[in-house]
Structures are given as C-alpha cells and as structure tokens.
Amino acid sequence: MPAISASAPGKIILFGEHAVVYSQPAIAVPVLQVRAKAILTANPRGRSGSVHIQAPGIGLEAELEALPDQHPLAAAIQATLRALDLKRIPACNIRITSTIPVAAGLGSGAAVSVALIRGLSNFLGQPLQDQAVSEIAYEVEKIHHGTPSGIDNTVITTALPVFFVREMPIEFLDVPLPFTIVIGDTGVRSPTALTVADVKLAREANPADYDRTFHEIGEITRSARKAIENGKPDELGGLMGANHACLQRLGVSSPQLDSLVIAAHNAGAFGAKLSGGGRGGNMIALPQPGSADKIAEALTKAGATRTIITEVKQRAI
Ligand code: PMV
Fold first, then answer.
1. Which residue, judged by its Cα, is nearest atom 4 of ligand 1?
2. What is the pLDDT of residue 315?
3. 201 burial level (CB within 10 Å; 0-12, 13-18, 19+)
4. Comparing C-alpha atoms, which of 216, 201, 276, 205 is closest to residue 24?
C-alpha cells in the first residue's frame, strides 16, 4: 500500500481575536505558505494496533500507546477512530512535519490535527468530510487552548477566508479584490491558552470595560467584512489600527508587537495590528499596493524573526 499523505495550511486572524471567545465575530484567512503534513505508511509486519509516530519538529518519536490520552496527537487519532466507529488501526507509521511556527498565532496545532485526521481517515479508507474533520480538530483544540472559539479548526479545514461567530454556521467571505498581507513574527513564543486565560481573569475583575471593548472589536470586524466584500481592502488599514488599540486595552499586546506595528506604519503601511493570542507571536500589516517587500524589510530591521507575504483571495488554490 502506498503512503497516504494529507496536509493543512496555516491561518492568520485579520480581525476579532479574543472578542471572538465572547461571541463577537472574527475574520481569519488561510496562509498557504506554511503547512502541516501527515504521512501514513502501512507496516505489514507490525502488530495490529501498533502505531509508530514521528514528529521531528517537536522532537517526538513514540508508540501511540505510550502517549498519554491527553496528548494532542493521541487525542486526534483516538477521536478519529471513534468518529469512524473503529477500535483498532492496522499497524502503521505516522510522520508529522510542519513549517508552521508553534505558539505564534498561525494555527500550528489545528493544522497538525487537521492533516492527521484527514490522513488517518484516508488511510483507513473512510475519508471524513470537512465538517467532521473540523469538529474532531476542535475537540483537540480544547486540549491546547481550554476554551477555543473554534476559528482555527474552521479556517484551516476549509482553507477559505471566513467570517466566524462562535457556535454559528460558518460564513465564507467574498473577496472580490484580492489584497496582500505582510505577517511579521516577533520570535516570542506565547501560548494562546495563557493570554485567553489572562483576559478571562481580567474580564472577571472588570466586566463592563472588557465587554465594551469586545463589542467595539465586533463593530470593527463587521466594518472590515464590509470593506473586504465591497472590494475596498484599503479601508482595512484604519480598522487594523483601531483593533490593535482595543487589543492593547485588553492587555495582550507587548513591546515587541507594538514596535513592529510602528515600524510597519513608518514604512508606509495602511495599517497594522497584532494577530492571534498576542504577547508575542505574529503581527500583520496591510501594505500599499506594490510595497509588501518594503514593509517586510522594515519589519525585519525592527526585529521580526520571520516575515511572510500572503495574498487574501476568494479561493485558496
Ligand atoms: O493565537 P491564535 O492565532 O491561535 O488565535 C487565538 C485567537 C483567540 O481569539 C485569542 C482565541 C480563540 O480561540 O479564538
């Protein structure tokens, strides 16, 4: 049997992070330049049920049965088997690789889950539909994040720009005029679970202010949707600035993120903001047409450890 492989892209949040946890909308888009991949190979001489997992990126080489149930890879495999109503897997090797930086707001955990769930269900001859893949990846996200909104697994499974409201049907965005985003990595790793937990605590101490800010972010995100769907992406610059100011108020920015945002402005970007959980990870900037390279250079000079130039378009092929 030939090896079976499946992959999933990264993602970046354009608007609405954190507020999305409190039922406000968020906009996220796939980032095709980075991907997670799962390759499954049958091991005809192996004992039935023996699954050898290699994930060199996280220094993991182990038998499935040696991993705790709460390990995200084990959880993804077990949940896939449950969804397929299977008790055992034929002996196999699973190799996971990813070019998506971990804990950087690019959805690395969800992309690994989606690639693994897809690859495994294909390997078992029962390919799961996107909806089921996304639901299983969401269960695994809960292990990573505690109370994830579900945006990562949704955008990564569909690989389409989404307007996402928690527990509502997915809405895909019309993007009549594609536009470019520059992503800049602070190089600081910041687990989303921590910032989400901190925001939760801070909100408990000060619900009125936090809910007002979440509401404001929701309005910004709705305006951003209109700008994108009306083919006026230039208008997103001001909205990014407003969203970044809200995120600063929530306490999830950092000196590194702020200085990359300022560097993008100084280099002529229409706007910039942090993206994802915050306190580290990535920021995004909206360059003027033809100036993405210049913004990326400015971000590198200001300390970004990596930049990605990506296009937001209707259908990510
Ligand atoms: O750090 P990221 O890009 O995985 O995104 C986190 C987004 C939050 O809104 C902060 C949390 C969530 O689950 O939506």
1. 105
2. 65
3. exposed
4. 216
Spot the catalytic one: 69, 85, 130, 152: 152
Distance 76 CA to ligand 1 centre (A): 19
Residue 16 alpha carbon, nearest atom of ligand 1:
9
Q: What is the pLDDT of residues 97-128, one digit of tens each?
A: 999 988 778 999 999 999 999 999 999 999 99
173 Cβ closer than 6 Å to some ligand 1 atom: no
Q: Are strands 92-98 and 162-164 parallel, antiparallel or unpaired?
A: unpaired
The whole-angstrom distance between residue 151's C-alpha and the CA centroid of its chain comes to 8
pLDDT value of residue 52? 96
Q: Confirm whether 211 is a catalytic residue.
A: no
Looking at every residue in the chain, the average pLDDT score rounds to: 94
Nearest one of 246, 247, 249, 271 to 260, comparing CA atoms:
271
Q: Which atom of ligand 1 is nearest to the CA of 18?
A: 9
Residue nearest to atom 5 of ligand 1 (CA): 276
Percentage of residues of the chain with pLDDT beyond 70: 98
